[in-house]
Amino acid sequence: MRRERQVGALTQPTHELHELGQSLWIDNITRTMLDDGTIERYIDELSVTGLTSNPTIFDNAIGAGDAYDDQVAELRAKGLEAEQLFFELALTDLRRAAKLFEPINERTDGVDGWVSLEVSPLLADDAKATIAQVKDLHSRADCNIFIKIPGTDAGLTAIEESIFAGTPVNVTLLFSTDQYQAAAEAYMRGLERRIEAGQSPEVPSVASLFISRWDRAVMDEAPDELRDQLGIAVAKRAYRAYRELLDSDRWQRLANEGARPQRLLWASTGTKDPEASDVLYVEALAAPFTVNTMPDKTLLAFSEHGRVRDPLPADGGDADEVLARFGDAGIDVGALAKRLQEEGKKSFDDSWKELLGTIAAKGEKLAASA
Question: Looking at the whole model, is its pTM more than 0.90?
């Protein structure tokens, strides 16, 4: 039986962060990373305990090199269209990754050790179609997997129904406390309905708050003294809401029935500002019982020179003060949150279309050379 962590990992900043109570996930997957043992090394040496994926990650993986060529040709020969073909490719990779995380999933009794797969972003405004695809993908995956649902208005309905159906969900595309709370509300409604129906409320979930896109959005507007502070302040305010929810009477009633918290997850934590620290968001957002999913570059940088500082204060610290300063500078944070979610939805749509185009082009090229 393979070890989950080598002794050398005990000196890593990543291990220190893990010991503080935060889960480190890798925001990447490629077949090459599976074949050459990269993901296994991340688990053994850098305390990585989960994995997330998105259309852009798979687009880059499938489009580069020939690692997917044989399976693309095989599936295309069976008549699969680009979207069907993609999900088969993705599930093949994610099942392999899930197997690597399975010992962690078992050891933590389902708290950790997950992989994630996104539904088609084109369904973001169609609750019924999203619910159907969530059910289909989870059934086909048959492993320790979260299905990612965007926290749009239609997505909230899909989240509640999918949780009620017992499907583990990663809520994505969240940018603000309000959006996070709406996702948490949908999660709790799903659990309460399960309890009323005499079913177990043990349905894992995470809520993914995007961080770095905030600072990129205001890079040319924010005063120099506030540069790269908006994403962290938004995260601190959301963390306060998360901790307040866990202390609420409503949640305590659910916990008494056996429910587990929907953990808050920091997403988009790679630094976009070339003048800022490459581990800015990892160091700033250390907090127990949260998740930080990060790209390889950020994970490796933190393992080399990151520092684990004091964890986020439960009351959000200086979040309100910093956000007020952005308001004084003419930045409407509430309006920006809505804009970022809309822009994020469009970006996901564009990435999805590019991914399907990449797969179609590769399939045609392979067929022509056969």
Answer: yes
